[in-house]
Amino acid sequence: MKKIDVLVIGSGVAGLTLAIKFAERHPDKKIVVLTKTNKEESNTRYAQGGVAAVWDFETDSFDKHIADTLDAGDGLCDEEAVNIVVKEGPTRVKELIEWGTRFDKDTTAYDLGREGGHSENRVLHYKDLTGWEIQRALNEKAKTYPNLAYFDHYFAIDLITQHHLGRQVTRLSPGVQCFGAYVLNTRNKEIETFIAKVTVVATGGAGQVYKTTTNPSIATGDGMAMAYRAMARMENMEFVQFHPTSLFNPAIENPAFLVSEAVRGFGAIIKTPEGKEFMQKYDPRKSLAPRDIVARAIDNEMKMKGQDFMALDCTHLDKEAFIAHFPTIYNKCKSLGIDVMKDLVPVVPAAHYICGGIKTDKVGRSSVQNLYACGECSCTGLHGANRLASNSLLEGLVFAERAAEDIGKRIDSIEFQENIPKWDATGTTDPKELVLITQSIKELKEIMSSYVGIVRTSVRMSRAFDRLHLLYEETEKIYSTTTISPQLCELRNLITIAYLITKSAAMRKESRGLHYTTDYLKKHPFLEMTLM
Predict the structure, then answer these.
(1) What are the DSSP E strand ranges found in 290-387?
(2) Residues near 300 by Cβ (< 8 Å), separated by ≥ 6?
(3) In terms of Cα–Cα distance, which of 402, 422, 421, 413 is closest to 370?
(4) Which residues on neighbouring strands pair with residue 353, listed in sequence order?
């Protein structure tokens, strides 16, 4: 049993930034960061494009960035949250630079990129490895604080609430509190109890609920599922963003390789495999339209033509400049026999980002007392029905600062909950075969990809509910009799996320943003798409 002031579950940009800020301001307090693999692995690491922030005030403005964000969010953004993130964002990015993050420069000024949905060039980047560079800088900075400890290969199983003290807790129960978490040490297979005054969920996304995703294998929605079981309020789970351009590879990769939106911002054009443009049919912004529009357009063209992929044309771009900006993408394509300067790059949409999550207020507090959330697992109201490209890293930075500040004000008034029982594994045994778990994960991905993907219908979602219920019953039976393992917990969490996405989607009786259902077609100003 470990007693700490602040427990942070997740080591991406949101979790680490919060940990660093709190550790710096409160050297007498102990803060622990848990990561289920190693500290280098997170969703942040895979962010290619960059971080969007108003930087050049001669051509750009807060009003323009706010307007772009609201437009992408399709009427569901919380305008206060948008104002907070856009206006506080540049200061947070400057702090990243002070901490050692390197962004590309064009001579002396920063080389600002542009991505879909942005009206100006405002995306700071480090080649096509921005997330990797930010993660590197944060890891180095975190090492400098003696009161900040990393625990890697620790898998959080459940948040501790009054439920674990023998009290019945429902979604209507007032005053639900979080006291820490039960955590599996995956090295020695022991379940440890972390008691904390404040617990922060910063576990990233849930892309692994789909068959094709740009998210790493760790993105199984653990934090969101734990918070839901702890009776935290969830919001906007139906809005799953599919990135329009993951690299099509017949030898299926997990995760799918992302061809950054910045490539289109650089001038690449979406075409059919035969080389014909089609985005003009769907939006006047063509290849630089917001992601939901581009993803649906590609999906529609694939279905109408019966093709496995569409294409990205980079052949007209300057080779030297392309390689300088996108060395990883260039080399990945080359490894598959694709010369981006001569060949069209095959692309398909892939699950990329979830706009919903644990509902928080403007300082990161969830509806459960002493439980905070930030980063992709949270729902601050910034993204609404669709995330504007490169706003995610910015959101993580801004709300990490706000949460760290709020926790600092409250930490001395919070008492430890002392009488937490140890995890009870009585009656469980090691699994006789893992195929029951691995096969269920495959089935889950197929269900969600087929029935609750880019385009939805009430019939598809009803079928998804039926299949998910069966998986849920089978998995709970295994969970009640089997020794805890990361694979079993991830399956359980993925089923919870799939249920929340499907339930939220079924409840929304309209097409809006990333939720597109043929039962409620939304008229497009230029063309009413006939979607299969």
Answers:
(1) 310-313, 345-354, 357-359, 371-373, 378-379
(2) 455, 529, 530, 531, 532
(3) 413
(4) 241
- Last residue of a domain, which of 352, 372, 398? 352
Q: Which two tokens stand for residue 446?
A: 């197929």
Catalytic residue numbers read 291
Query: Both 197 and 269 in a single domain?
Result: no
Same domain, 176 and 279: no
In angstroms, the CA 405 to CA 394 distance is 17
Percentage of the chain modeled with pLDDT above 90:
81
Q: What is the mean pLDDT of residues 142-166?
A: 95
SS3 labels along 383-439: CCCCCCCCCHHHHHHHHHHHHHHHHHHHHHHCCCCCCCCCCCCCCCECCCCCHHHHH
Query: Are 153 and 195 found together in one domain?
Result: yes
pTM score over 0.85: yes
105-145 pLDDT per residue, tens = 988 899 998 888 899 999 999 988 898 999 999 999 999 99
User: Which of these, 379, 125, 349, lies nearest to 239 by C-alpha position?
Assistant: 379
Rg for the chain (alpha carbons), in Å?
A: 22
Pair 33, 105 in one domain: yes
CA distance 405 to 396: 14
Q: Do 369 and 335 belong together in one domain?
A: no
pLDDT tens per residue across span 282-327: 999 999 888 888 999 999 999 899 999 999 999 999 999 999 999 9
pLDDT in tens, 34-43: 999 876 667 6
Confidence of residue 531 (pLDDT cuts 50, 70, 90): very low
CATH code at position 140? 3.50.50.60
Claim to verify: residue 479 and residue 345 sit in the same structural domain: no
